[in-house]
Amino acid sequence: MSGQLMPCSPGEIGSLFLFEKLSPEQLGQLCSAGRVERFEPGPVYTEGEPATCFYVMIEGTVVLSRRVGGDDVEVNRTSQRGVYSGSMQAYLGDRVQQTYNNSMRVTEPSRFFVLPAETFSAFMQEWFPMAVHLLEGLFFGSKNTQRAIGQRERLLALGSLSAGLTHELNNPAAAAVRATSTLRERVGKMRHKLGIIAQGSYSPEVMANLIDIQERTAERVAKAPVLSPLEASDREDTLADWLDDHGIQEGWRIAPTFVQGGLDVDWLDQVAATVGEEILPNAIGWLNYTVETELLMDEINDSTARISHLVDAAKQYSQLDRAPYQVADVHELLDSTLLMLSGKIGQQIKVVKEYDRTLPRIPAYPAELNQVWTNLIDNAVQAINSVGGEGTLTVRTALEHDRLLVEFRDTGPGVPADIRGRIFDPFFTTKPVGEGTGLGLDISWRIVVNKHHGTLQVESSPGDTRFQVLLPLTAVDNDTTEEPE
């Protein structure tokens, strides 16, 4: 937007703090190369447009804003003389994309000293060569440092996830190995017990009854109810008494297995009535091995299913063999991330899921959203651990107007108000030296805002901190999308 051209006074320009140390000759060159423009209330330039000019306010009121999702978020409003904006990185030339990184408007008639970007760059190179070299080093050095630390943070996160996944996989794998070894032993004993029964003078009818009881016992094991510890203990005592009364040795060892398999006194009465008293001990021993083998096979099945579930979660988390950009269900992404981080979350932190399952799938970069969830969950866990390690992490999804909300709420100490505006800045961290890079929330912010055109915000009070991610329900076209470092 062009304003009304007005005379340029070197004396007035020199009264601005940015130019107060320049010589009269330099101020004259500025006035000759630049111009003074008067703008009526309204926009001066728009974020994302080519940065063609450098603006210094002489008088008026200026408002700077950033585009976040579909909204313009005000980041600064001031009437201070000499404030500047626009092509402030023109001295870097074509080594960086020269576009306006914010939008500027004025709320009252305002005057600016306007300098073309090329001219501003030339004056910087000519008048302040040392400062230009220092600024270039600071700019590119910061970028390189941010990239290197970002990669390091990803490696640390990967190591933590790998350790947690290894731990989670080790438990069911070890259980399956133990169950397989025990199963082999029980099957051997069962064959031996069957041989003893077969050597007896049992009629084919009795043997058929034994086989039938074995099959029906296996069916009962598959349908065994889940008992409370008190209920299980009472049933074990009752079964142990029954076994003792019927001359079964070491009934107290057999009773817990039968209870776990869903057998009761009524069932054992049916067995006794079917096989007869003379072979009851051998029959009970054979049924004990039957129940044990069924329980062991259930344990192996549960363990291998757990391993398969963990592998599926790892593939979901990493988005292995999937397109980077796709229509995704955020609940699947959240569940896989929570499972991958379950070792880090631990047993003392209660995880509550408040999902709105009616929410639609959304276009997104799932692997990068998983990185956002990881960073926010990790911060919540650390916050809860800082106050004793016991608390609640609530993950909530909902429809917020025309956007999808994903909220992470923790019962930690909260984010102090004086630093709340800085937590998304690169390298800002409240963690001790060596324990945080200060890039987790910065990376998350850029993934949500720059890549998904959403919003990342925080609401906090002691015992109730909420990080809220708002994502558009439909794809947003933007040619200037910034890739996270």
From TrEMBL:
EC number(s) recorded for this UniProt protein: 2.7.13.3
Histidine kinase domain sequence ranges: 296-475
Keyword Transferase: yes
Annotated GO biological process: phosphorelay signal transduction system
Cyclic nucleotide-binding domain sequence ranges: 18-124
Lineage: Bacteria, Bacillati, Actinomycetota, Actinomycetes, Kitasatosporales
Catalytic reactions on record: ATP + protein L-histidine = ADP + protein N-phospho-L-histidine
GO molecular-function terms, A-Z: protein histidine kinase activity
Protein name according to UniProt: histidine kinase
InterPro entries: cNMP-bd_dom, cNMP-bd_dom_sf, HATPase_C_sf, HATPase_dom, His_kinase_dom, RmlC-like_jellyroll, Sig_transdc_His_kin-like_C
Keywords, sorted A to Z: Kinase, Transferase, Two-component regulatory system
Principal EC category: transferase
Pfam families recorded: cNMP_binding, HATPase_c
Signal sequence interval, chain numbering: none
Domain of life of the native organism: Bacteria
